[in-house]
Design brief:
Layout: E1 3-10, E2 13-22, H1 27-37, E3 41-54, H2 56-71, E4 73-79, H3 83-91, E5 99-101, H4 104-111
Parallel strand pairs: 2-3, 3-4, 4-5
Antiparallel strand pairs: 1-2
């Protein structure tokens, strides 16, 4: 199974949806695609509701995106964490890096306040 990225702009916030598996096979392309999609500044919601699996390679992609956001003035929120992905991120301490919201709408609202 592959990974598909879609993006849209909602109220000035870039929303990137990841559908599929974020693993060692898909991570390099996802990382490259995300870097191209993410603005240097502004707000981004990453919608992981369609991410059915995330390996350590996927966590590394999220860490690199987090560092990218920290190096500029990019505000980032995650939504749609499945119980498995949330458990992995919680166990590794990754949840603490991100604003985690329940929906894309909530993420857009949280980032535009």
């Amino acid at each position: 199974m592959s990974m598909e990225l879609r993006h849209q702009i909602r109220n000035g916030v870039t929303v990137v949806t990841l559908d599929g598996r974020l693993d060692s096979e898909t991570a390099p392309r996802v990382q490259q695609d995300l870097r191209a999609l993410l603005p240097g500044e502004g707000q981004v919601v990453l919608d992981l509701s369609g991410t059915v699996y995330m390996s350590s390679a996927g966590l590394r992609v999220l860490l690199l995106i987090y560092r990218h956001a920290q190096s500029g003035s990019l505000r980032l929120a995650l939504t749609g964490l499945t119980p498995d992905v949330r458990a992995i991120m919680d166990a590794t301490g990754f949840l603490g890096f991100f604003t985690v919201v329940e929906s894309v709408d909530e993420g857009v609202e949280a980032l535009t306040v």
